[in-house]
Amino acid sequence: MTFSKKTNPLIRVIKKTINTNPLKTPHPMQTKIKKVELRNLAFEDYKQLKNSMVESYPEMADSYWRSEDIERLLAIFPEGQLVILADGKVVGSALSLIVDEKLVDKRHNYLEVVGNYSFSTHNPFGEILYGIDVFIHPNYRGLRLGRRLYDARKELCEQLNLKSIVFAGRIPNYGQFADKMSPKKYIDKIKSKQLHDPVLSFQLSNDFHVLRVIKNYLVGDEDSKEFAVLLEWNNIYYDESPKLINTEKSVIRLGLIQWQMRSLSNLDALFEQSEFFIDVVSGYGCDFALFPELFTAPLMADYNHLTEAEAIRELAKYSDPIRKRFQEFAISYNINIITGSMPYLEGGNLYNVGFLCKRDGTFEMYAKIHVTPNEVQHWGMKGGSEIKTFDTDCGKIGVMICYDVEFPELSRLMADEGMNILFVPFLTDTQNAYTRVKHCSQARAIENECFVAIAGCVGNLPKVNNMDIQYAQSAVFTPSDFAFPSNGIKAEATPNTEMTLIVDVDLDLLKELHEHGSVRILKDRRTDLYEIKKIKNGEK
Fold first, then answer.
1. Which residue is catalytic, options 158, 232, 293, 449?
2. Is 71 helix (H, G, I), strand (E, B) or coil?
3. pLDDT digits (tens, 9 = 90+) for 68-88
4. Which CATH architecture does the domain made up of 36-234 adopt?
5. 533 tagged catalytic
6. In the predicted model, is pLDDT for residue 285 greater than 50?
7. Which of 157, 357, 394, 402 is catalytic?
8. What confidence score (pLDDT) does residue 105 get?
C-alpha cells in the first residue's frame, strides 16, 4: 500500500475501543445487498477502490494506494488483483504478487516484499502467491465477503500451480497482552480459542498456518508491538511439473436438509430454524443447500379455522418475504440455496414453486409441473408450464418438485441442456409414496447420467389440516457404473429423523462416464427412431 511521504505507509492502525472480553467480537452492522460480484480489478475501479480504502482506515486519511501503483500492478500481474462489488460498488479488494520462495524463506519486511513500491519482486515464474493487501469496507463487514476474496486467492493459486499463499498479518490485539506474554504464547492462546485476534483468528479459520513471527515488519505498528505473523496456505494440488491447465471446479459439495415438521409461532421462527441449517451446511463448505417441498406448512396452523383451499392461499402470502430472506442468507453464507417449495399466487392461480437463491444475490424460480390429485382436490393448485435448467457457479442444475420426478421426460429434456445435478425437494406422507420418489430418482440418475439429490420433511404436524404425517429418507443417487457406488446410492440419511446430509459429488466422473462408461445411455439413444421435444404455448 502506498501513502504520502509524511506517513509510514505500512502502518494501518485503527484506534478502537478495547474489547474487555478478548473472546467476544462485536457484531457488525450488516448492509442489505441485492447482488455480489467478484472479479479482477480494472483501472476504472480506482476511484471507488480509493473511497473504500479511505473508509476502511478512517484514522489514517492518506492510507490508500496511489493510482500509479494500481496501474503498475495491473500491468505486471492483472489476474492477481481482485475486487468484490456490492450492487456495483467496489467494497473490498485483495492484491497480490508472485515472488520467489527464497524471498519468503529469509527475514523480510513489507517494503522488501513490494520492492519499495516498484514491485520489482514480482516474478511470473516464482512459486509463491504473496498477499500484499486485503480490505473490506466497514459497512460491508460481517457478510463473509473477505472469505470470498481469500477463496478466490486460493483458486488462483491452484490455477497458476503455485506452491502456496503467504502474507504477513498484524496481531492488533497483542498490545493488550504484551506485558503478560510473548508473541508465541499469544499465538498459542489464539489457536486454542482462549483469546481472539481480529486478524489472526480469521486467518487461522481460513486454513492458514503460522510460519514464524517477524519483528519490525510494520514499523510503528504499536497495536501489534511491531510484530507480524507470517502465514501460509499450502496448495495440495501443486505440481512441480509444467503448469496445470486451468480447470473449472469439479467436486461439488451438497447439503441436504431433512426438515422436522414442528409448530412455528411466526415467520421469524421459520427463519431462525432455516438459518440454523444454512449455517450448518455452509460451515461444512457446501456449495448447495436443499430444503424440502412445502417445509413452510407449519405456518398454516394459524389458519385452521379456514378451509384447506383458503389456508394454503394465506400461506402463499409468505412466499415473497421468504424468498427475499433466503436471498440474504445466500449472500451472507456464500451458498446456493434451493428453497424446496411453497405455495405461490400469480394471476389468481395457485402454484407450487420454489426459488434458486444464488450466492451472488440473484434468484430464479421453478414450478411444479405435475401437481398431484391431492393438490388439485384440496388446494386447487395448477401445474407450471416452464421446463428449464439453471446456470450456477457449479455448472448446470435442474430442479423438479416431488411428483415431477416420476415423469422421465422432464429430466431427459434437462439432460439435453447439460444438467449435471438434479435436485428433488419432496413431501411424502407414507412409505410407499416415498418409494415412488426414491426409485424414480434413482432411475433418473441412471438414464440421464447425472447426480440426483432428494430432500424431504419428516415427523407429524397434527395442527395443520391435510398435513398430518410425513415420511422421508433424503439421499444422493448416482449413475450405476464402476466409478460410482455399486448400488447407485452415494449417501442416505436416517429415515424419519431430522438431520443434514453432506455429500461430495465429482462432475469429472460424469464426463468420464459420458465418453467411456460401460454403457453410454445418452450417446446410444436412437434419435433416428424417437425424440423428446418441448412444446411451447401448446404448439410444436
1. 293
2. helix
3. 999 999 999 999 999 999 999
4. 3-Layer(aba) Sandwich (3.40)
5. no
6. yes
7. 402
8. 87
How far is Cα 95 from Cα 83, in angstroms, rounded to an integer? 9
Confidence of residue 382 (pLDDT cuts 50, 70, 90): very high
Nearest residue to 40 via CA among 73, 7, 1: 73
408-446 tens-digit pLDDT: 999 999 999 999 999 999 999 999 999 999 999 999 999
Q: Give residue 378's region: left, alpha or beta (phi > 0; psi -120 to 50).
A: alpha
The residue among 86, 136, 128, 122 whose CA lies nearest residue 104 is 128
Of 368, 394, 440, 450, the active-site residue reads 368
- Say yes or no to pLDDT of 312 above 90: yes
Average pLDDT, the chain: 88
In the CATH scheme, what is the homologous superfamily, with its name and number, of domain 252-516?
A: Carbon-nitrogen hydrolase (3.60.110.10)
d(CA 138, CA 55): 7
**What confidence score (pLDDT) does residue 476 get?**
98
pTM of the model: 0.78
Query: Which runs of E-coded beta strand occur in 120-198?
Result: 128-136, 164-170
- DSSP H stretches of helix in 397-501: 408-416, 431-448
Is pLDDT at 538 greater than 50 in this prediction?
A: no
Give the cell for residue 478.
448416482
Kindly state the DSSP code that residue 138 receives in the 8-state scheme: G
Helix, strand or coil for residue 356?
strand
Share of the chain above pLDDT 70, in %: 91
pLDDT value for 224: 87
Residues spanned by CATH 3.40.630.30 within the chain?
36-234
Distance CA 100, CA 129 (A): 9
Residue with the three cell numbers 476474496: 149
- Indicate if 364 belongs to the active site: no
Residue partners of 116: CB distance under 8 A and separation at least 6: none
Looking at the predicted structure, is the pLDDT value of residue 488 above 50?
yes
* CA 490/CA 306 separation, integer angstroms: 43
All CATH 3.60.110.10 domain ranges of the chain, comma separated, are 252-516
Identify the H or E element spanning 499.
Answer: strand 499-506
- Is 368 a catalytic site residue? yes
User: Could you tell me which residues come within 8 angstroms of residue 127 by beta carbon, excluding any fewer than 6 positions away?
Assistant: 100, 101, 162, 163, 164
Other Cβ atoms within 10 Å of 179 Cβ, number: 7
Cα 471 to the center of its chain, rounded Å: 29
506, β-bridge pairs: 251
pLDDT band, residue 2 (cuts 50/70/90): very low
- Contact present, 93 and 41 (Cβ < 8 Å): yes
Give the mean model confidence (pLDDT) for residues 35-61: 87
Integer Cα distance of 59 and 80 in angstroms: 28
Task: Report the Cα–Cα distance between both ends of the chain, in Å, rounded.
Answer: 62
Lowest mean pLDDT among 78-82, 220-224, 379-383, 459-463: 220-224
Distance CA 525, CA 540 (A): 22
Phi, psi of 158 (to 5 degrees): -70, -45
